[in-house]
């Protein structure tokens, strides 16, 4: 196996490009169009008929990890022969729209059965022709400095900004000799593959812990903490067997909708997440982001700690939770006050369990999934099961402790994943900008 090591270049020079700065002395600078064609025309092979299947690449099929098309979709040629981006094997396709551009949706195309493929019109196509390898261009387009320099020139509305072909053709880059490009890309191929493998394995661990957490919640909120207690049929299809001393109730017997509205709009703004339940909105936005686009928060719904908040459009996707805060929520959310006989923390876990989410979806109204709504009448009609108050509280306390332990483990793993992603970025940035030199063993 070839081994690589780093050292500084012996001599640097000014690249003449402000954002690039100094580059190794033997590197050359130029515009992308000096080294590659962009959006070059690609002819459809004459031996293909309209009914022949060809590869099609939606934006979502380009993994934002380094250089990978997750899969090809196969469609009849007549469906994509006009109005779509065309490319060949070895072309570099690059997403020009946010957020895909920032995420690095860029790949070298390989494996096209007819040497022609089709994709979203949001792809740009680059074809190297001199002094630039496809592999090096591919890594350059993943370079953070390039993306940060390009972002101010993107045009369009927030979330739908695009970088223009004109900007890309005239954008400058610094290039090492071809032999050095190959050394660099071989090194980056090896290192990014190793890093990606570690990220994949750690991500699988996160998934496993997430499944463990949900399994623990599902089991505990329906079977309780005492595994020796006698069980009975609950009479509720979505729950199944329960401890024989538990009761069946309808939601309407336990919660009442609160429709109190804010007069001042000055209360703490809350949000509902499928991942974390109810949180304070200020904890989920960056320093340069607005809490809300609303002109005023007057008329938002008042919520008290212990009340249940449901985003009626996302109940089927776990968009609900019991609040730990006093505050206000969107007028389109539903707020429910629990009666004094129940521990709302228990219902936070029950209503966010996998079984409950399936039941919420079944009781939601709408033609397509993205338009489902869980209105109060349908929510009230759902049957649930509950132990006595003391046991509800014990279950909630137990799950607080256990889920917090799992969350801490997941947070540690996610921190390691972010470190690996940052390492990958740093390696690419430093090598393709000439900050460090990659040499093979024996040089």
From TrEMBL:
Gene3D superfamilies, per the entry: DNA methylase specificity domains
Presence of keyword Cell membrane: no
Annotated Type I restriction modification DNA specificity domain residues: 26-198
Pfam family name, one: Methylase_S
Key words, A-Z: DNA-binding, Hydrolase, Restriction system
One MF annotation (Gene Ontology) recorded for this entry: type I site-specific deoxyribonuclease activity
EC number of the protein: 3.1.21.3
Top-rank lineage group of the source organism: Bacteria
Recorded family membership: Belongs to the type-I restriction system S methylase family.
InterPro entries cross-referenced by the UniProt entry: Restrct_endonuc_typeI_TRD, Restrct_endonuc_typeI_TRD_sf, Type-I_RE_S_subunit
CDD domains: RMtype1_S_EcoEI-TRD1-CR1_like (cd17260)
Organism of origin: Clostridium algifaecis
Protein name: Type I restriction enzyme S subunit
Subunit architecture: The methyltransferase is composed of M and S polypeptides.
């Amino acid at each position: 196996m070839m081994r690589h090591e780093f050292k500084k270049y012996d001599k640097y020079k000014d690249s003449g490009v402000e954002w690039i700065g100094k580059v190794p002395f033997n590197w050359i600078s130029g515009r992308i169009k000096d080294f590659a064609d962009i959006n070059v025309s690609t002819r459809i092979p004459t031996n293909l008929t309209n009914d022949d299947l060809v590869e099609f690449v939606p934006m979502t099929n380009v993994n934002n990890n380094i250089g990978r098309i997750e899969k090809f979709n196969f469609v009849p040629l007549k469906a994509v022969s006009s109005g779509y981006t065309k490319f060949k094997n070895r072309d570099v396709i690059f997403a020009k729209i946010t957020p895909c551009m920032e995420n690095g949706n860029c790949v070298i195309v390989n494996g096209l059965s007819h040497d022609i493929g089709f994709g979203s019109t949001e792809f740009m196509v680059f074809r190297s022709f001199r002094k630039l390898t496809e592999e090096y261009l591919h890594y350059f387009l993943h370079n953070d400095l390039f993306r940060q320099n390009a972002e101010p020139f993107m045009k369009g509305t927030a979330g739908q900004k695009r970088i223009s072909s004109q900007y890309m053709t005239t954008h400058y880059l610094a290039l090492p000799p071809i032999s050095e490009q190959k050394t660099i890309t071989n090194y980056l191929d090896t290192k990014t593959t190793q890093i990606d493998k570690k990220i994949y394995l750690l991500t699988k661990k996160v998934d496993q812990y997430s499944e463990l957490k949900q399994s623990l919640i599902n089991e505990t909120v329906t079977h309780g903490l005492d595994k020796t207690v006698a069980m009975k049929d609950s009479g509720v299809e979505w729950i199944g067997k329960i401890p024989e001393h538990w009761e069946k109730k309808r939601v309407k017997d336990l919660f009442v909708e609160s429709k109190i509205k804010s007069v001042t709009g000055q209360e703490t703004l809350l949000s509902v997440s499928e991942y974390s339940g109810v949180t304070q909105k200020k904890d989920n936005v960056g320093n340069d982001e607005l809490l809300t686009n609303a002109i005023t928060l007057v008329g938002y719904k008042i919520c008290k700690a212990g009340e249940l908040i449901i985003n009626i459009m996302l109940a089927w996707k776990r968009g609900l939770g019991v609040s730990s805060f006093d505050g206000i929520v969107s007028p389109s959310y539903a707020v429910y006050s629990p009666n004094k006989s129940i521990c709302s923390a228990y219902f936070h876990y029950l209503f966010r369990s996998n079984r409950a989410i399936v039941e919420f979806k079944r009781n939601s109204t709408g033609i397509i999934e993205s338009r489902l709504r869980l209105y109060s009448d349908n929510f009230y009609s759902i049957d649930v099961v509950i132990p006595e108050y003391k046991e509800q509280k014990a279950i909630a306390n137990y799950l607080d402790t256990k889920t917090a332990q799992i969350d801490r483990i997941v947070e540690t793993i996610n921190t390691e994943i972010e470190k690996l992603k940052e390492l990958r970025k740093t390696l690419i940035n430093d090598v393709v900008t000439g900050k460090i030199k990659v040499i093979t063993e024996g040089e």
